[in-house]
Design a protein that fits this description.
The chain is of the alpha+beta class. Strand 4 and strand 5 form a beta hairpin. It binds flavin-adenine dinucleotide.
């Protein structure tokens, strides 16, 4: 059932078994898992059915991108442009590119500080399969791998092509599929979806350990309360930490922040492009005669066929103490009788406590303090990138494929960095509350019934585009919540009262 929160009488109180904040990839996947069950769900979404500049302005803040050499670039616009506040969230904008994290991404890598997830890939694998089904793509299993051949650059030594597939569950494609999906979840009889419902505060009970209710409000000034048995923040990788930090009236520094972890280790993926228009020499592969054809990338220029995304193998990452790295060879162009591919590089950003989100003094139209984002790419990122790119160039030559032309001195880094719209790590998962914000079940440390869904819980980013993993983790969380609620028994009836808040 879709309800416009602006139509509720001021001071309404809503109850449900599960209260979910945000209707993006995570929130919809989670709510969808409860569809048809005896449990009631209240989905609170800041936006309406369509995109609105006034609503998206609630995401504004102050952003600074820091390079390893002290260079700083303002990036305020990124905070608004890299996400969407309306039904379906940023799925309305995303490109649909899906990939699983690698098994190594979950492991503790002694050469990367703060690496290691409290779960391994095997544990997540069944949820990855369900996430693929939900997003309408083939599972990344042996059959799919066999169907799309892997191209090794130099005898499988260091670089092989990576599998990426595209979901068409996106608002960017014309067609009804995404439209049907988001409305199907939002309109389930046991799911009440409130639009224009902005969560403003998270309120604990007297003991200070369980969340009693969230306060939500509308831009026209009404305030309401949603009460639940469990609560999930699925407001996106930037807004999840912002909500926890803003909820500081009962606990200093905000919820889950007893050890100053909320907002720390913010990471994304950096794409390094060397474009002529950027005052940089382009990075290109100049192929040896016939090598481009032998390599056989971008057959038929179909992005769903073998793509030229060469990723660094696990063995090479271990041996050379490198973070995740890939080089994407774009479709071949011919010039003066020679074959070339423009290249761009993607890097995994290593967790850095100083790369962080915090609250500034400015407030949004609803009174929430706005974000300050100090997003740092540090010397370890630059060092890992520089060594990986040199290895890639050497492998290309040794394999007789061609030469990589790039200007190593031009690696001033943040100036050529295109930041992917992936918001990772700022409520990271760890069994140790001194190292993270949520535990392995995505429950906020120090609370009994508050959970987080989204890329903000990833302890490390890996190289894969995050949404498939966001959805897989949301499905896993739904399983946990269902059994927890069943164990405790009793089912709340979704209700609204006016004037009782
Ligand atoms: C242009 C673009 C292209 C992308 N391409 C890809 C890609 O190809 N592959 C990939 O994996 N990822 C891609 N991404 C990233 C991907 O879109 C996100 O990782 C994903 O959508 C995040 O899902 P989420 O549910 O965590 O957050 P969101 O989808 O951002 O949803 C959060 C929801 O919470 C709501 N909300 C926020 N605050 C509040 C509040 N206080 N109260 C109530 N509701 C609130 C928001 O309105 C929003 O609807 C892309 C992103 C962009 C912008």
């Amino acid at each position: 059932m879709l309800i416009d929160a602006r139509s509720l009488p001021d001071g309404s109180r809503i109850t449900a078994d599960v209260v979910i904040v945000g209707s993006g990839a995570a929130g919809l996947a989670l709510a969808g898992e409860f569809a048809g069950s005896a449990l009631t769900v209240c989905l609170l979404e800041s936006g309406g059915e369509e995109s609105s500049p006034e609503v998206n302005a609630l995401s504004a803040g102050q952003g600074r991108l820091h390079g390893p050499d002290g260079v700083q670039l303002p990036c305020d616009d990124y905070l608004v442009e890299s996400r969407e506040r309306s039904l379906g969230g940023t799925l309305n904008l995303w490109g649909g590119k899906c990939a699983e994290l690698d098994g190594l991404d979950f492991e503790e890598r002694e050469w990367i500080a703060h690496s290691g997830w409290p779960l391994d890939k095997a544990e997540l694998q069944p949820c990855y399969a369900r996430a693929c089904a939900l997003l309408g793509i083939a599972p990344f299993d042996a059959r799919q791998r066999a169907a799309v051949p892997v191209v090794a650059l130099n005898g499988e030594r260091r670089f092989t092509t990576a599998l990426r597939t595209f979901s068409d569950l996106t608002g960017k494609l014309a067609g009804e599929k995404f439209h049907r999906y988001k409305y199907a979840v939002a309109n389930q009889p046991n799911v009440s979806t409130y639009l224009h419902a902005n969560v403003l505060d998270l309120v604990l009970d007297e003991a200070g350990q369980a969340l009693r209710h969230v306060v939500f409000g509308t831009l026209d000034g009404r305030r309401h309360v949603a009460q639940g048995r469990v609560f999930v923040l699925a407001a996106g990788g930037l807004e999840n930490p912002r909500l926890l930090l803003n909820a500081d009236s009962q606990q200093r520094g905000g919820l889950g922040n007893a050890h100053d972890q909320v907002g720390r280790c913010f990471a994304g993926h950096g794409l390094l492009r060397f474009l002529a228009g950027n005052d940089q020499p382009p990075a290109v592969v100049e192929y040896a005669p016939g090598a481009a054809q032998r390599l056989g990338l971008y057959l038929d220029k179909d992005p769903r066929a073998v793509q030229g995304i060469f990723t660094l193998s696990r063995a090479a990452q271990r041996r050379d103490a490198l973070a995740g790295f890939s080089a994407t060879l774009e479709p071949v162009v011919q010039q003066d009788g020679k074959d070339y591919s423009p290249v761009y590089f993607s890097i995994e950003q290593q967790p850095d406590r100083e790369s962080r989100l915090s609250l500034g003094a400015q407030r949004d139209a609803l009174g929430l303090r706005r974000l300050v984002m100090d997003w740092r790419f540090n010397a370890a990122d630059r060092d890992s990138f520089a060594r990986a790119v040199a290895l890639f160039a050497a492998e290309l030559e040794q394999a007789g494929i061609g030469r990589l032309h790039y200007d190593a001195d031009a690696l001033r880094f943040v100036e050529v960095l295109e930041t992917a719209r992936h918001h990772i790590g700022a409520t990271r998962m760890s069994d140790d509350p001194r190292e993270g914000v949520v535990d392995r079940d995505c429950r906020v440390h120090g609370t009994a019934n508050l959970y987080v869904a989204g890329a903000s819980v990833f302890p490390t980013s890996g190289l894969a585009n995050p949404t498939l993993t966001i959805v897989a983790l949301a499905l896993r969380l739904a399983d946990r919540l269902k059994s927890q609620l069943r164990e405790r028994g009793g089912v709340a009836t979704s209700r609204e009262w006016a004037g009782a808040a």
